[in-house]
Amino acid sequence: MSNVAKPRNPEDDWKIWLVVNPATWLMPIFYALLLLAIAVHAVVFSVGLGWQ
Length: 52
Known about the structure:
Blueprint lengths: L15 H4 L2 H25 L6
């Protein structure tokens, strides 16, 4: 284990896309973010913190 190179962030941040293939996961990630944004807005507007 001592010969394994430690990651140098942020220089090595691009390597996540070698594991998370954008062709497969980009749209599901965007849809999940959209659902999260809609849920956050629904909560904020339901407690009365939206526009007047």
